[in-house]
Amino acid sequence: MTVPRISYGVGQPWGNAVITSIDVVGAAVSDVAIPPTLLQYKNSQVVAYYDADRTLTIADRNIGGLVWNYRKLDSSAKWDSHNYVDLGFDKSGKLHVAGNMHASPLQYWIIDLSNDEFRPVKVNALFDSQAELKITYPRFIRSSDGSLVFTYRNGSSGDGDFVAVIWDDPEQRHKLVSEGPLIDGGGKRNAYLDSNAPILGPDGLWHLLWVWRDSPDAESTHTINYACSQDLVAWRSGDGRPLNRPITLNEQSVVDPVPMGHGLINNNVRLGFMPDHRPVALYHKRDASGSQQLWSAIFEDSSWIIRQVTNWNFAWNFQGQGSLDFKIEIGVPLTTTYGLSVDVRLNEEVQTYLFDADLTLVSAEVAVLWGPLNRSTRSDGLIDRCEAARGWLAEDDSREWFISYASVPDQRDQRPKSDIPTSHPLSIVGISGSQGNCSP
Questions:
Q1: Domain extents in the chain
Q2: If we measure between CA atoms, which residue out of 245, 270, 242 comes closest to residue 255?
Q3: How would residue 6 be classed by pLDDT, with cut points 50, 70 and 90?
Q4: How far is residue 82's CA from residue 162's CA, in Å, rounded to a whole number?
Q5: What number of CA atoms fall less than 13 Å from residue 228's CA on the CB side?
Q6: Which CATH number fits domain 25-269+374-433: 2.120.10, 2.30.29, 3.80.10, 3.90.70?
Q7: Nearest CA to 105 among 135, 65, 139, 71?
Q8: Residues 189, 433: Cα–Cα separation, whole Å
Q9: DSSP letter at 409?
Q10: Contacts with 421 (C-beta within 8 Å, 6 or more apart), sequence order
Q11: What angle is formed at CA 215 by the lines to CA 211 and CA 216, rounded to 5 degrees?
Q12: What is the pLDDT of residue 323?
């Protein structure tokens, strides 16, 4: 399939909406596939990205404003696309930044955006510097009382723990959410979570969905698991049974016991919610013939009900380590009035799958051009991409905001061999009208 070149301008459609503004933030590194991050807090927009010199950069402005303020951090990217950057705000309104880590020592800063003279403060340790030497996958989430929670993997692929710490505003320091990690690999494996987890669901509970991997080889991924909690401390399985802390490999949390080598991979295990708040897992694994298929799982009565969704004639036999160029990608499931919607990319074609309240597939149609999974390869070898803004405590705004940028495909964390542009403009796109298709 030939994918049309993505182009856009003010007044043109963006999904089901119309573009109202396009503002260039700056030149961003393009020879490594590290997505930028866009966060909105009250009336501010903040972007974290690696600039043309590969320096980790924080840019902020008033929402819709014309002037950006820039802060360069003492951290530079190479060609490892695991080195994501995430952002979060504490109760006092200070910005927390963590990133450029792949099984490496903590890199974390606190910035007061209200003070132009404020220099970023480097946090040297969360609570124990000697226990924070192999950090990956930083993520900030906001608890139900507004507290800032920071989660990460401590360890390496196939041997790591999932840890959560909370920022104590009065004491201005981090504390473990509870003693020890939330999920413990026992030195034999590590958990790969839905990239948005822990997810605060529509039922007011925290939800985790994860797979296990027993080595750096992607083919060693296995076993889908689920847990939920009221307080991020005490966790239970889908049928309400309490889980021991830390959570380890055990049958109580298992959704689907997919064995190693059966087509399961991290990043493509997604958690959604039906209109009645029931959690749903979407993922892919191989069928009896060896073809990859999309599967769904929903908890009914006393067990997880697993269904094959697609009938693809497609084999994706991945193996090895490093960032893979995914041939299948599952987007974030969205709750609809009648069920569930999710975009799925197979090779270069993205389809929108609609499910009814019984999780029966109702339709699968080609998705509109602009969406989080659409990839448009340019003549210079870069791929046009977009990312949606995350709201922290954003003010009411009739617009939606997205980052438009370009980068190489994933290169297994190696320097690209071809002669391609090393930087490309990063822009913020504002849209108005119907809800766009890059929504988280």
A1: 25-269+374-433
A2: 270
A3: low
A4: 16
A5: 21
A6: 2.120.10
A7: 135
A8: 46
A9: P
A10: 30, 31, 380, 382
A11: 95
A12: 84
| pLDDT tens, residue by residue, 69-116 | 999 999 999 999 999 999 999 999 999 999 999 999 999 999 999 988
**In whole angstroms, how far apart are CA 398 and each of 42, 336, 351, 392?**
14, 20, 27, 16
* CA torsion, ordered 222, 228, 231, 235, to nearest 10 deg: -70
How far is it, in rounded angstroms, from Cα 345 to Cα 22? 26
DSSP string, 240-270: SPBPPSSB-S-GGGEEE-PPTTSS--TT--E
Q: For the chain, how long is the longest CA-to-CA vector?
A: 62
> Among all chains, which residue has been given the structure tokens 């390869």?
377
- pLDDT at res. 394: 65
User: In the sheet that 17-29 helps form, which strands lie side by side, from edge to edge?
Assistant: 13-14, 17-29, 423-433, 400-407, 383-388, 376-377
DSSP H/E element including 204: none
The amino acid at 238: G
Q: Look up residue 256 and give its two tokens.
A: 């689907």
